[in-house]
Every structure is written in structure tokens, then in C-alpha cells.
Design brief:
Length: about 200
């Protein structure tokens, strides 16, 4: 991406789902932030902001609520960035599925199990070149949670900035809030980051 291997990034598509209809699970409790968008929709939002290296200008969201729990069980959204768009579907009541496609004006990247890769097997990444060649890039087996914990611990022990600062979480939540607003209004909603004083 950074070396222009797919040209300029124009489109991101993400699918992230699993099935959980356990009434006792925190993810199915609307009053404490349960639901697909808050649980796993944050990852496509974060990935999109990271890959475009920008904040979306506006968003459009559609939500299907579970009548028993009141949570969003299926959420779809489009994020409009200055340079392109990102669309995603997340669900807590669909078959388990994960995938990311990054489409540029000169190539494409597909990522297998991008958001929580298993710690005990290789995952793949495929790079479609503009000339039609398809290259597989095998990612090393690793435990992403351990890496995350180690980097966070290192930042604390060495008194250095954490890999993802608090401001990033605030920006991500601002986008999520806009998706919820859009689902309620039925219209595109602007993304306005409020700065703390």
C-alpha cells in the first residue's frame, strides 16, 4: 500500500461476522453497549481510517435490530473519504466470516481472517497486480493479542507513547456514533470530530 503496489487506494470492503444469540452474553445487552457495531464494527471503521490515513467525511448506515435483545445484530455502513469509500457489514447473528478487500486504481489486496487471525496457523494475503499476476503473501504464525499486550506493556515500562493513542479511540467512536445516527435518520450523516478543551 505505502509503496503504491495497488496504485491509489479507492475502495475498501470488509465483512466481519459470527453467531451469538446467548441472552446472557454482554454482546447481546443493549443497555451496556452490546451489538454488532460496538463489538466488531469498530474494526472495519479503524481499518478504513488507518488505510486511508484520514477521517471519513460522511457515513450512511443501515441496522437490523434483534427484537429480543434490542441490539443491532446486522449493521451495514458506507464511509465516504476524500479519496474513496469503505463499506462494511458486521453481524453477531450470521455465519462466521472475515475478509478485507483493498482496491486501488492499479491493483488489489485481499486479506484472509484480518481482524483476529488464529494464533496457531498461517493466514494469507493476496496481491493482484495491475498486469493480472496474483501473488500470495503468507503471514507468519503469531498471537496478535500477545503482540498487542507486549507493545502496550513496553510503552508503560519505557514511558513511551502507546501504539494507538486515546485520540484514535475517540475518532473511531465519532464515526460509530455517526453510523448510528444515519441508521436512525435514514440519511447520510456528517462525521464531526469534537476536540476536547
Amino acid at each position: 500500500m505505502r509503496t503504491g503496489g495497488i496504485g491509489r487506494l479507492r475502495i475498501i470492503q470488509v465483512v466481519f461476522s459470527y453467531f451469538n444469540d446467548d441472552a446472557g452474553d454482554i454482546r447481546n445487552q443493549a443497555d451496556i453497549g452490546g451489538g454488532a457495531l460496538m463489538d466488531i464494527g469498530c474494526y472495519p471503521v479503524s481499518l478504513s481510517r488507518f488505510m486511508f490515513d484520514a477521517e471519513p467525511i460522511r457515513v450512511c448506515g443501515v441496522i437490523d435490530r434483534d427484537p429480543r435483545f434490542g441490539i443491532d445484530r446486522h449493521t451495514s455502513a458506507i464511509l465516504k473519504f476524500a479519496e474513496g469509500t469503505s463499506s462494511f457489514v458486521c453481524s453477531t447473528q450470521a455465519a462466521p466470516c472475515q475478509g478485507v478487500s483493498l482496491l486501488g486504481d492499479a491493483g488489489q489486496v485481499e486479506i484472509e481472517i484480518p481482524l483476529n487471525p488464529p494464533p496457531d496457523r498461517r493466514c494469507g494475503l493476496w496481491w493482484q497486480h495491475s498486469d493480472g499476476r496474483r501473488e500470495e503473501i503468507a503471514l507468519e504464525i503469531c498471537d496478535q493479542c500477545t503482540i498487542q499486550g507486549d507493545l502496550f506493556s513496553e510503552a508503560i515500562l519505557q514511558d513511551t507513547p502507546v501504539p494507538t493513542p486515546l485520540e484514535d479511540a475517540v475518532a473511531n467512536m465519532t464515526v460509530i456514533d455517526a453510523v448510528f445516527r444515519s441508521a436512525e435518520s435514514g440519511q447520510w450523516e456528517p462525521v464531526t470530530l469534537r476536540h476536547r478543551d
